Amino acid sequence: MAEPVEVNRAEVLAGIPHGFLGRRGGVSTGLVAGLNMGLGSGDDAAAVAENRARGGAAVLPGAPIVACYQVHSPDCVTVTEPWSDAERPQADALATNRHGLLLGIVTADCTPVLFADREAGVIGAAHAGWKGAIGGVTDNTIAAMEALGARRGAIVAAIGPTIAQASYEVDEGFRSRFLESDSANTRFFMAGKPGHWQFDLPAYVAARLAAAGVGRVEDLALDTYAQADRFYSFRRATHRGEPAYGRQMALIGLSER
User: Fold this and answer.
1) Is residue 1's pLDDT more than 60?
2) Domain at 7-164+200-253: CATH code
């Protein structure tokens, strides 16, 4: 019997089709074994397509997945119609009020954030790596949702599987970028070995969301690096000297009326 797709869900998004997927339940083999949904992972295209079909069916059966070509930017695209993989715009977040499709974000340590305003019927999804996070990708997603009728205080946001502070070592130059942006960001760094720090990316993203005025934020507190059997991790693959790594996907949609 095939392993079922593991779907991690957030309480704040209860009742809204969504899921933070991992590597369980897919058909890929080798270094990217499992539910690899990354088009740029070097995996067999047919396996990725099957994984995406399985992942989508586990969240909102029959709905097409709409994703962007992620480039670690702060940019958010408003989705009015589904597009093909070949037509993906370069961006790192999506927002829509369209029913019957799934917004998808791929990650492999960076923070996936799913958003919803139930009252307005508006959803969003953001890929918040450190560059996108400090650049304002979550702020831009909220703004795009507001343009579709969402109300900032009614928006809830969930943070999915992300590299945790204990697993995310950075150097002094990295830390300096964040302190130059806001000296209060020192609270997201814990001293590590000489000249290095441990960065709390999910806490930083959560703080940005709270500062933006969203109604509620939930962090699932799942560490991609530490749980190799459940999640893909770019940094773990790098530390192991592996030439390839998979990507998991976060999905959110609005059911057909």
Assistant:
1) no
2) 3.60.140.10
Sheet holding 196-199: strands in order across? 169-171, 196-199, 189-191
User: What are 126-173's pLDDT values in tens digits?
Assistant: 999 999 999 999 999 999 999 999 999 999 999 999 999 999 999 999
Q: What is the pTM of this model?
A: 0.97
Nearest C-alpha neighbor of 156 from the set 2, 30, 7, 11? 11
User: How is the chain split into domains, by residue range?
Assistant: 7-164+200-253
Q: Locate the DSSP E strands across the chain.
A: 7-8, 18-21, 65-67, 76-78, 93-96, 102-107, 111-117, 122-128, 156-159, 169-171, 189-191, 196-199, 216-219, 248-253
Q: State whether residue 163 is helix, strand or coil.
A: coil
